[in-house]
Amino acid sequence: MIIEMTPMSSEIDQSDLIRRLQEMGFQVARLDSRKLALVKGIDPLVRADLFTALPHVQRVLPLKEKFKLASKAVRNEPTVIEIRGKKIGGRELFVIAGPCSIESKEQIEECAKIASEVGAQGLRGGAFKPRTSPYEFQGMGEEGLKILRDAGQKYDLITVSEVMDASQIEIAAKYVDVLQIGARNMQNFSLLKELGKVQNPILLKRGFAATYQDLLLSAEYIISAGNPNVILCERGIRTFETYTRNTLDLNAVPALRELTHLPILVDPSHGTGQRAMVAPMARASIAAGADGVIVEIHPEPDKALTDAQQTIGFESFAKMMRELKMIHQVLKEIC
Amino acid sequence: MIIEMTPMSSEIDQSDLIRRLQEMGFQVARLDSRKLALVKGIDPLVRADLFTALPHVQRVLPLKEKFKLASKAVRNEPTVIEIRGKKIGGRELFVIAGPCSIESKEQIEECAKIASEVGAQGLRGGAFKPRTSPYEFQGMGEEGLKILRDAGQKYDLITVSEVMDASQIEIAAKYVDVLQIGARNMQNFSLLKELGKVQNPILLKRGFAATYQDLLLSAEYIISAGNPNVILCERGIRTFETYTRNTLDLNAVPALRELTHLPILVDPSHGTGQRAMVAPMARASIAAGADGVIVEIHPEPDKALTDAQQTIGFESFAKMMRELKMIHQVLKEIC
Amino acid sequence: MIIEMTPMSSEIDQSDLIRRLQEMGFQVARLDSRKLALVKGIDPLVRADLFTALPHVQRVLPLKEKFKLASKAVRNEPTVIEIRGKKIGGRELFVIAGPCSIESKEQIEECAKIASEVGAQGLRGGAFKPRTSPYEFQGMGEEGLKILRDAGQKYDLITVSEVMDASQIEIAAKYVDVLQIGARNMQNFSLLKELGKVQNPILLKRGFAATYQDLLLSAEYIISAGNPNVILCERGIRTFETYTRNTLDLNAVPALRELTHLPILVDPSHGTGQRAMVAPMARASIAAGADGVIVEIHPEPDKALTDAQQTIGFESFAKMMRELKMIHQVLKEIC
Amino acid sequence: MIIEMTPMSSEIDQSDLIRRLQEMGFQVARLDSRKLALVKGIDPLVRADLFTALPHVQRVLPLKEKFKLASKAVRNEPTVIEIRGKKIGGRELFVIAGPCSIESKEQIEECAKIASEVGAQGLRGGAFKPRTSPYEFQGMGEEGLKILRDAGQKYDLITVSEVMDASQIEIAAKYVDVLQIGARNMQNFSLLKELGKVQNPILLKRGFAATYQDLLLSAEYIISAGNPNVILCERGIRTFETYTRNTLDLNAVPALRELTHLPILVDPSHGTGQRAMVAPMARASIAAGADGVIVEIHPEPDKALTDAQQTIGFESFAKMMRELKMIHQVLKEIC
Fold first, then answer.
1. Sorting pLDDT into bands at 50, 70 and 90, what band is D134?
2. Could you give the CA distance from residue C112 to residue B160 in angstroms, rounded to a whole number?
């Protein structure tokens, strides 16, 4: 439920009301100087007039979705997250590029240089790698994070890297701007709660069998724990089709737009698993209304230690960027 | 296998070679004046030198896909199908619009008028409706087809309507330009073989659990039976996600581009089942490289007898068309 | 809606009531001497008292499922279908065995002999084969059907063979007892309607992306067109798992038991696509409450022209039959 | 790769060989007094004769699966895990029962009493609950674990409870016998590695979009980190079918039997989400060859705080146990 206070109500009135609602057993989130959301403790039997009788309450609106703070009912305009002067979720295109795994200083420098040159905003690279098999390359760890930070600073790119458990949050938060949560951890609820305690924006990837609602409830875990800066990322679901690694579900873009105010990115690299499909699906993502894309690039894609098959080279990346800007320009004109 | 003949070989040489291959037990398709494809009778044990030893044979190329005539190995440039002066599969945008079901002369006339005004090429409407339940509206039949033909002629639009079994082919072919095969009949092999015997282009919709290869093998049924004019159409697959009616799989667009020379359309109406998602996903389809889209429109969408929830009104349709043209213009510039 | 007439109502009263309801625009099915079902023409606005006001009507019950005649609301006890003295749907185990394709008289005779010896009730074999590729073996046609009929008569087994379109119904019905509809044709509604006009029981296989409701609505097409003898068959759905050919969904057995009175078989051969999994999944089918199974056997499984990988040999088949009888005996004791 | 040593080789010879292989850069697992497995460091270019040239090596066998220690190549006989005198994975039926969430001492006592009376071996109950929404009941924590331990001791039942992150392992291991990893954490690789360091057997549930290979690779994470006692549990996957909460995939039972030596349980409660389907699917699980089942029971199922819809009452549970014993008796006779 959303409680709207009267125009005349003061900050003290609001604090009083919050306390009172908490005493009644509700978990309350402050939306703005006149709006509160009851996110927990509400059940279908609770009637609106219980609240309208309280002092300074003007009216009560229902909050029918299971996710609350992530919903458009709570916040109707898009959330814009600003990171070191770059904005995601607004009217500008936001592109994050980089290798699947951080392999060396040179590799990251080269990726950062091209990303910067073609006008991307972010640099990605994995230091802790979630691998299906315990016998595969597990990442460079802290050393990799330092390399990423340095390249990000040198080329003025925000940096993104994945954390796989709570013990990695502190160290990752020290070096990178945005913490990424991978598809396999989207419902690692313990980890989500911990992410609510940091300041860094969180890039939350959709699990490969997660519904849109599941994704938004996972975002809700982070937001309700204190961190409102969640960026959603579609990266493909599992279906019967085996030609692609996953089935990138672009329906997620307009569907999530209907449901939430959070920024939406798409990862066409993992979503397709096919180099030749990255650019077409990146274009389609922007045309569908996504705020941007995150793609895997590598100086020598065929030599990438991980995900070689879906990684594109610098020339393809530069061409793709030109295309995305043109499509994005069309979107700006029509929306 | 593809057999390429020497530059000097005559038409008679080719006829002789075809006859000889047929006597050897192979099914042969003539690709052009110098190329033949062996589509049946080949097994892994047949060696290329069996053919290179034949007169006028220059070289032999493997045909590794299970589909043959639909593959790019057999034909590398895109197939362009011309229907009453309008081309699908070339560099122009191709949009087909119309109601799910033909309900009345007025309804179809209005749809044709707007389609023509906004620059669409085709008019769709169902006369025989495949309904999951036997108790739902089953369509107007032949009377509907006449209405469709008349409106198509009046507004210079090619017409598209679905046939559900072999007995409907003759009558539908008499009235409409393009025969549509619905998702539920994509593997109705008896029907596919019959469609190989008509001249009309076939709009073949992907079954909702069909792989890309399955779709191309169904196209192969039609082509190998004599009708090369097959238009593929992605229209959504079934997944665990229930927010949308189906999961429109736009990966199909670049994937099919890699595999086949046939034209590719997308149906964002059935693919999403949600009115608000039709335009974004139509834009994304074009950005991914589709030749066009087929969408459900209705003078009064909420009153549509079938598929009301996914049908858009005329104003939304006109806006969508403007957007698609802009996106398509970008694609023409970059590809 | 179900209309129950008063105990005193006569046959003439019932005929009068049926006529009257038809004049009101409803499609009526006679369930027994006192019960009618309105299967079409009902919408949420029709109120029960419209009917209770009619002569001889005692009470009106809602029919909430979209499928009507297939539902337990219309018929609460299990449907038992008797075919040449053998019953399916009752308390006895019903096993159908035979090769995927009819290849020769000898092959079918051998299969029939072993099937008869181990106590199976039915003999299956395909004469018209639905093949994903047009270039694969398409079946022996009528000659195959004769071979099947002869073997069935000689060994006192009921016979089952697939029809792929309406033109094959007449000839198949002439030779075999049960007409099978394959997964790819489950929503070939034109064919389903034609099957409503014959006397033969129909073995209706679940489409590989069909929900339980879809399957029952397809059964409804057949029943409402006049043929109440529909046998449902679970045969696997498409999922992301690639180890098995399909994912045999045994949940269908208890789920369909809740929803319908029709007999339920399981096909563990197509459902798994793996020879070693046929017997365990056949046992599980019976333990879950299925009325029986349909399995692919062959004198020399590795030499089967089609489906070799999922076909079991005679020794494995005999062992499986012993196991199924033991499991079935347990079920009889506990249910 | 598996390295078999000569019959004459001593313990010292083996230690020497292990050291030497480690120096060569391989990760080595000792299988028995004469067998070693190389689980890491092998690539397709490594040739067998590199190893046969080493002292005391008799022969080298390939290990083609991506999972090694979980594979049958490494261990052909079934793993039997003994927990406080009860064996899982042998020839005896193993049933674990209890509520979804631990709610009170009384509730757990009652469940333990009935479980013991009907012959179950284990008691389950959640103290830390993974909930899709942050606003739902999150469990009783340590207090719940104490209640579970006490009831397990009083009624001689082994106890099972879920841990959601590494920080809960120590406390849970202190109170319960078996640590459960839920479907959402199946690919929480950081957690899996930590579980390799404890002595407790691990009940590893299949993720709802995980392939059989994914599941076995997750088991491999635990085993390769030092804990060989992994119990696999099928609990349903996500498909397009919405009648059931998940699609319980019983094919997993015979498929995993082919691939691994680890014990296999099935969870028909989560797998179906439907009370009426629990017993039929439990019977089917045993008939398919599972080592046992884990089911949700509650003194008053309709009042369960979580999962009420899929929880069965004591009477149904007792009936189900009788049925499972009968089916299991059949399996013992035939296998």
1. confident
2. 49
Say yes or no: A132 contacts chain C, CB-CB below 8 A.
no
Q: Among candidates B205, B213, B219, B291, which has minimal Cα distance to B248? A: B205
Minimum distance, in Å, between the CA of residue A50 and any CA atom of chain B: 33
Q: Which of D125, D190, D200 has the alpha carbon at shortest distance from D155?
A: D125
Which chains neighbour C (Cβ–Cβ under 8 Å, 3 or more pairs)?
A, B, D
Strand partners, A126: A101
pLDDT tens for C36-88 read 888 777 665 567 778 888 889 998 888 888 899 999 988 989 999 999 999 99
What lies within 8 Å, CB to CB, of C16 at 6+ separation is: C55
Per-residue buried b or exposed e for D41-69, using 16+ beta carbons within 10 Å of the residue's own CB: ebeeeeeeeebeeeebbeebeebebbbbb
Highest mean pLDDT pick, A279-283, B302-306, C30-34: A279-283
| Cβ–Cβ gap A250/B255 under 8 Å | no
Residues of chain B positioned with their CB less than 8 A from the CB of C68:
135
Alpha-carbon distance A310 to nearest alpha carbon in chain B (angstroms): 14
**Minimal Cα–Cα distance from A227 to chain B, Å?**
27
Angle, helices D252-259/C275-288, rounded to nearest 10 degrees: 140
A-C C-beta contacts closer than 8 Å: 6
Is any Cβ of chain A less than 8 angstroms from the Cβ of B258?
A: yes
**Amino acid symbol at B25:** G
In chain D, residues 175-204 whose CB comes closer than 8 Å to chain A: 184-185, 187-193
pLDDT at A214: 97
C40 to A332, C68, C227: CA distances (angstroms): 50, 9, 17
Supply the pTM of this predicted model: 0.93
Q: How many CA atoms lie within 13 A of A27 on its CB side?
A: 12
Q: Across the beta sheet with C2-5, what order do the strands follow? A: C27-32, C35-40, C2-5, C57-61
What is the amino acid identity at position B33?
S
Q: Considering Cα of A210, then A211, then A214, then A218, what sign does the dihedral take?
A: positive
Specify the length of chain C in residues.
Answer: 335
- Averaging pLDDT over each range in A22-31, C12-21, C170-179, which range is the top one? C170-179
Touching B (3+ Cβ pairs <8 A), the chains are A, C, D
Query: Residue B23 burial by CB count (10 A; 0-12/13-18/19+): exposed, middle or buried?
Result: exposed
Name the phi and psi angles at A198, rounded to 5: -100, 170
pLDDT digits 0-9 by tens, D33-53: 898 888 777 665 567 778 888
Q: Assess D326–A contact: CB distance below 8 Å, yes or no.
A: no
H helices within chain D, ranges in order? 11-23, 49-52, 105-118, 142-154, 166-175, 189-195, 212-224, 252-259, 268-272, 275-288, 314-334
Residue predicted with more confidence, C28 or B313: B313
State the ipTM, two decimals: 0.93
CA distances from A134 to A143, A181, D163, D169, D209 (A): 21, 19, 21, 20, 19
Question: CB contact, 8 Å: B240 with chain D?
Answer: yes
Partner-chain contact D164 A224, CB within 8 Å: no
Structure tokens at D104: 């009170």
Mean pLDDT for A176-188 is 97
Residue A42, amino acid? I
Phi and psi angles of residue B122, each rounded to the nearest 5 degrees, phi first: -130, 160
Ranking A38-52, A157-171, B53-67 by mean pLDDT, the lowest is: A38-52
| Euclidean distance between CA atoms A219 and A210, whole angstroms | 12
CA–CA gap between residue A240 and residue B331 (Å, rounded)? 30
Q: Which residues of D touch B236 (CB under 8 A)?
A: none
What stretch of H or E contains B324? Answer: helix B314-334
